[in-house]
Design brief:
Layout lengths: L2 H33 L1 H10 L1
């Protein structure tokens, strides 16, 4: 196995894990927005 193959394989793994991290962050953001919804609406009404 040459170095190029190893790099390519690791790259695809890395890309997949980065996508997973983005999905998890997006879900966390949605969760925070849902939990803080009333709070956010209250702040927006005060503006």
């Amino acid at each position: 196995m040459d170095t190029n193959e190893v790099i390519k394989r690791n790259e695809s793994k890395f890309r997949r894990s980065r996508t997973l991290v983005k999905i998890i962050l997006a879900l966390l953001l949605v969760l925070i927005i849902i939990l803080q919804y009333d709070h956010i609406i209250r702040i927006l009404k005060q503006l």
